From TrEMBL:
It comes from Linnemannia gamsii. PANTHER family: ATP-DEPENDENT RNA HELICASE, ATP-DEPENDENT RNA HELICASE DHX37-RELATED. One of its GO terms (biological process) is maturation of SSU-rRNA from tricistronic rRNA transcript (SSU-rRNA, 5.8S rRNA, LSU-rRNA). The gene is ECM16_1. Keywords: ATP-binding, Helicase, Hydrolase, Nucleotide-binding. It comes from the Eukaryota. Coiled coil: none annotated. GO terms for molecular function: ATP binding; helicase activity; hydrolase activity; RNA binding. SMART domains: HA2. Residues 8-152 form the Helicase-associated domain. GO terms for cellular component: nucleolus. This is ATP-dependent RNA helicase DHR1.
Length: 214
């Protein structure tokens, strides 16, 4: 790691109030508490300050999700879109013009009766698109503009499911990511009770008071 990279990391820790903004760059009380968590600094600070706002369980779930990377399957990863193709589009090609199907009237069982391969591929894409958009509506039920609400929604739903792999497939979320999230949640539940939360509470109050006074 270059000296420039180290300088940037140092400045980031200063910005997070984990280091003092002085030539000495001493670690702050907030920084000491952040160091308890084996996470990147911004996520460690989220956990530290969550206790102050009485939202620890929610932030733990969010931090676990942010730690594993991408949770939701993206539309482009499904190969379900073609230029100019819409769900109510009719084909002009002679090979398929005599086989027209409405997506709303079709399910996976009915797809088995389609003999034209081109039509079948198109209708499978349309059916997957419909399921994908329906899943997005469910994910956004708490707040369509809040990505953290989407994460909380799907993490909570996953925990209640018995067939978790099927849940991930039907809801277009990454199964491996969800497994890692809940492994992290299990680790948090075991580890966090040993963290001195009274210390976190006191130092966050001190930190907030300083911010308000500045």
């Amino acid at each position: 790691m270059s000296s420039k990279d180290l300088k940037q990391l140092e400045q980031r820790l200063v910005y997070l109030n984990a280091l003092e903004n002085s030539n000495k760059k001493s670690i702050t009380e907030l920084g000491k508490t952040m160091s308890i968590f084996p996470l990147v600094p911004r996520l460690a600070k989220m956990l530290t300050l969550a206790h102050q706002e009485n939202c620890f369980p929610y932030v733990i779930a969010i931090v676990a999700a942010l730690s594993v990377g991408e949770v939701f399957v993206k539309e482009f990863q499904l190969d379900i879109t073609r230029p100019g193709e819409t769900d109510d589009e009719s084909e002009d090609d002679d090979d398929v013009s005599n086989q027209r199907y409405r997506l709303d009237d079709m399910d996976e069982m009915e797809l088995q009766h389609i003999t034209n391969e081109k039509v079948l591929k198109k209708e499978k894409r349309k059916l997957t698109r419909r399921k994908f958009y329906k899943a997005q509506t469910v994910h956004e039920a708490l707040d369509p503009l809040n990505d953290m609400a989407k994460i909380l929604n799907v993490v909570g739903a996953y925990a209640r499911e018995t067939n978790k792999e099927k849940f991930c497939t039907e809801n277009f979320v990454h199964y491996k990511a969800m497994q890692e999230i809940h492994q992290l949640l299990g680790w948090f539940r075991i580890t966090l009770p040993t963290v001195p939360l009274c210390r976190i509470w006191c130092l966050t109050l001190t930190w907030t008071s300083r911010r308000l006074a500045s």
